[in-house]
Amino acid sequence: MRPYRAIQWYTGAMGAMQVALLHRNPTFELVGVVTYSDAKHGRDAGEVAGIGPIGLPITANVEEALALEADVVLINGNTLQPDLLERILRSGKNVVTISGAYELTEEPQYEQLQAAALAGGVSLTGGGNMPGLLNDVLPLFMSGYTSGVRRIWTRERNCHDLYGSYATMSAFYGHPPPSPEAIAAMIGKSSRTGIYYQAAKLCARAFGLQLSDFQLTNFEVGTAPHDIVMPATGVRIAKGTVAASRYEYTGFVNGKPWQSVEMEFTAELGLGPQWKSALSEPEFVVRVEGEPPLEVTWGCGGIVNLIRLNAARMVNLAPAVIAAEPGCRTILDLPCGAAGVLGTRAFF
Questions:
Q1: Over 50: is that where the pLDDT of 346 sits?
Q2: Domain count, the chain
Q3: Who's near 339: CB < 8 A, 6+ residues apart?
Q4: Residue 336 forms part of a structural domain
Q5: For the chain, which terminus, N or C, has the lower number of CB atoms within 10 Å?
Q6: What is the CATH number of the domain that holds 41?
């Protein structure tokens, strides 16, 4: 069988890892790499990824990328781009994205992307760690070992000091803290869109349930005790501006909390006793309240390894999304992620 032809789309830190994984693994043939940066256009993809020249120039030309013959596109980015995804799907390429396609049926772009996938005879899914592991895949896996599940609660705690995206970090940090009145106005507000809602809906759907509400149920910020310069990006955080945040989203079933995800992100370790203080502290907790109750605490050794986790998950999902029925697919439609195609054949 010929290798799967793959395009890696957007070449940040995660994209560089995906380029390395795809190039080194015989399951795939890397046929294209796409950037939004004109400065990277024409450069060798392997050099940008840090693995040495591989003879494949990066392109910033979307039309050029769409004209490539490919089985799958791995696309990164902070937000879902439905118009771009529509063009990729209609060109006959399956898509794995980390940007918010975990369960799209109530999202405003669902009809657009479902129609595009069906027209192209391909499928679209979301991959990553949160959602994609922490607040959907892992708790649903754990629920197979208990009964009478009443509640799912998950938490991620991460320090972003070595996260290499200036745009993302400048959006998170360095802003004046919101007022108590602004925070109070956000908490308890209903919403039925976004990636956390998608994960909560997936968990409920797996049990044959429907969410009755979805809310932001907690929000806290921590301010910088001194001026901070984030080492990976150079983002500057002035003393007294936001250097940490903690927030929780909860999906309700019949008015009772059903699935919650809490996130804590900091610009550096040791901001105070209520924030993550050491790299050795595990990043993740998953609790499934049932008979018996189950809890898993685990870590991956920091933000760089978390990016590696996301990169590997998206590559491992590629064969499954290629084989899936056309349309917008979820983890409930795809096989378990165990023993992925990367196996032991590709290393950083």
A1: no
A2: 2
A3: none
A4: no
A5: N
A6: 3.40.50.720
Structure-model confidence comparison of residues 81 and 335, the more confident one: 81
Same domain? For 260 and 286 the reply is yes
Closest CA to 257 of 194, 208, 203: 203
Provide the pLDDT for residue 67. Answer: 97
The angle subtended at Cα 42 by Cα 37 and Cα 44, nearest 5°, is 105
Angle (deg, nearest 10), helices 303-323 and 13-24: 50
Interval 195-224 mean pLDDT: 95
* Residue 286 and residue 141 share a domain: yes
What's the chain's Rg over C-alpha atoms?
A: 20
d(CA 163, CA 304): 7
Range of the domain at 13: 4-126+306-328
Same domain, 285 and 205: yes
